[in-house]
Specification:
The protein is of the alpha/beta class and about 600 residues long. It contains 23 helices and 18 strands.
Length: about 600
């Protein structure tokens, strides 16, 4: 892939997410603020926890490099074990040791350890933290009282040191009793020879190697010579002398070991380096860290919520929504613009100053021209899924824009149930379409029903008196005659039809004008309803020219050029109640 394409795709991805944040900013901000507020409240209402720590050094045990000692019951005592330190760390948190500490400090009476589970609570409060690549280890204790934390840490360290010394004395005394026990010479000699101090003694190792060599020679000579042969006699004498030396050296080592053990010269290999002091500041909660996590976590949660809302959003807000969700060509946006009540809704089309509304409607006119390029008669219907999507407003402005191109335009109010065009153009509604369809004698009467607007090339055929049976009137042959006459006398015919739901009047118009522009309300009308409406049109062989998104709220990078020129404009929307008599406004929005 060329670098230019990769850069363009990256920019599009960034723009997509920035637009997502812009569209869903209130969801993001709400989640962000909620998470941050919850974290802040929890942090400042949390009871402070104080951590005290004492420092121990655990040296390797003295007594020979990893051999064995045999006790009186022939069990083995291991001195240098690769698991030695891990064993000590586990002993530091043993239930027996913690129970001693709990009893000594009477912890069950304190709030932090109150009740029968004092030892279990103490287990959770104690942390053993070895310092990597050293023989040092911290005993950390967390409670709500700084003095109590220090007291427990120091008490636990001292109890562990005492327990270790007791264990060492017990082992020393056990070995000493084995050495001093009254056994046969053979058993005693076997015990002495297996002691690590004897086995690992360099002189003893040298004597054993020499004895093994002489024993090998003795075996060889015994096969060749008689027992009285001089060489055999000489070897035997040397071997006896060597064994005597080994016995003497072994007795010397055992005697020295007895002296060490009986005198308790081994000492304690664990010492307290730094006793715990009551901490001045709490270790938990870490307010700055928690607030930072709340700030970042809130943004992530808000962004995920905004993304989820965008995924499950079943409305149309962008060009991609219209094309991907609806599968319809996109014609353009029509923004919401607040106008003075005394001005007509199409006032921006006659304004000398450019506006966001006028430019959007002219863009819509251009897209309609391209969509109609293959049609013989440039006539189309305008409809929507349901009432209140602003199709009459779009029709009025689009008809004015078409007339400004020099075309002779006829705008027909085809919604005989809730007529609206006469209000938008401030025209009389005494006679109109319903009167022609109900009782006309011929198309010659149509000329008298046309009303001129402020645009010289735009005429409007209003609804007229509201009939009790609109569907029956639209099924009469007079409708076909009306359309034929209008297409003959006008360059363009635009029909403001009723919405597709809950009635089907638009399909009656579509028999004569099989082209339609579909209006979608920005961020309101749900996609399933729009698809159901367009499906009805397609099943009736109606060509949908495309979808126009009305009442759009421009924002984000995708529409930044609008804001550059028209940032002072507001947006508007008119809609009517069920009787069609009252006029309301939605809240004003600003770009």
């Amino acid at each position: 892939m060329p670098p230019e394409t990769q850069t363009q795709e990256l920019e599009l991805d960034i723009t997509h997410y920035l637009n997502l944040v812009s569209r869903r900013r209130w969801i993001l901000i709400s989640c962000w603020a909620s998470v941050f507020l919850i974290v802040a409240l929890a942090t400042f209402n949390m009871r402070p926890i104080y951590t005290a720590q004492s420092l121990l050094i655990i040296e390797k045990e003295r007594g020979g490099g990893g051999g064995r000692m045999v006790s009186d019951n022939e069990s083995l005592v291991e001195r240098n074990n690769e698991d030695y330190y891990q064993t000590q760390y586990q002993l530091l948190k043993s239930q027996t040791l913690l129970r001693k500490v709990s009893t000594k400090l009477n912890l069950p009476r304190l709030d932090d350890f109150y009740g029968r589970n004092a030892v279990a609570k103490l287990t959770g409060a104690v942390t053993i933290a070895p310092i990597p690549r050293s023989r040092l280890v911290y005993i950390k204790v967390e409670t709500h009282d700084p003095s109590l934390s220090a007291s427990i840490s120091n008490t636990l360290a001292k109890a562990y040191i005492e327990q270790n010394l007791s264990n060492q004395l017990f082992i020393s005394q056990d070995v000493l009793r084995a050495l001093q026990s009254k056994q046969s010479d053979t058993q005693s000699r076997a015990l002495f020879d297996s002691l690590p101090a004897v086995v690992n003694n360099p002189l003893m190792q040298q004597l054993k190697q020499e004895a093994a060599r002489l024993q090998a020679q003795m075996s060889e000579f015994s096969e060749r010579y008689t027992p009285r042969h001089p060489q055999v006699t000489s070897l035997k004498a040397r071997l006896d002398t060597l064994k005597s030396q080994m016995t003497t050296e072994t007795d010397r080592i055992v005697q020295s070991l007895k002296i060490d053990l009986s005198g308790q010269l081994m000492g304690n290999n664990i010492r307290l380096i730094d006793p715990a002091l009551p901490p001045e500041r709490p270790s938990k909660p870490k307010k700055r860290l928690n607030l930072l996590i709340g700030l970042l976590g809130g943004f992530v949660a808000g962004f995920l919520a905004a993304s989820l809302a965008d995924v499950i959003d079943q409305t149309v807000r962008t060009q991609e929504d219209a094309e991907n969700k609806l599968g319809l060509p996109f014609l353009g946006f029509v923004p919401m613009t607040v106008l003075d009540k005394k001005d007509p809704v199409y006032q921006p089309m006659f304004s000398k100053e450019q506006s966001l509304t006028s430019e959007s409607v002219r863009n819509l006119r251009t897209m309609i021209d391209f969509a109609e390029i293959s049609q013989k008669h440039k006539s189309f219907l305008v409809t929507s899924s349901m009432q209140g999507e602003g199709k009459s407003y779009v029709c009025a402005n689009l008809a004015v824009a078409l007339s400004q191109m020099g075309d002779k335009v006829l705008l027909i109010d085809g919604d005989m149930r809730r007529s609206n065009l006469h209000k938008l153009f401030r025209l009389s509604n005494e006679k109109g379409l319903s009167d022609f369809l109900a009782k006309s004698q011929g198309v010659s009467e149509l000329e008298g029903l046309m009303q001129q607007t402020s645009s010289d090339r735009l005429s409007v055929l209003v609804c007229g008196s509201r009939p009790p049976n609109p569907a029956e009137l639209l099924n009469t042959p007079r409708l076909a005659a009306l359309i034929a006459w209008a297409q003959e006398h006008y360059d363009r015919v635009v029909v403001d039809c009723p919405p597709m739901f809950p009635i089907s009047d638009t399909l009656l118009w579509a028999k004569h004008i099989p082209a339609c522009m579909f209006i979608v309300k920005y961020g309101k009308t749900r996609v399933p309803l729009i698809k159901a409406a367009t499906k009805r049109l397609l099943n009736a062989d109606v060509k949908i020219l495309g979808a126009a998104v009305n009442m759009a709220r421009f924002g984000g990078l995708s529409y930044s050029y609008y804001g550059h020129y028209y940032h002072n404009y507001n947006y508007y929307h008119y809609y009517h109640d069920e009787t069609g008599e009252s006029e309301k406004r939605e809240p004003q929005l600003k770009t």
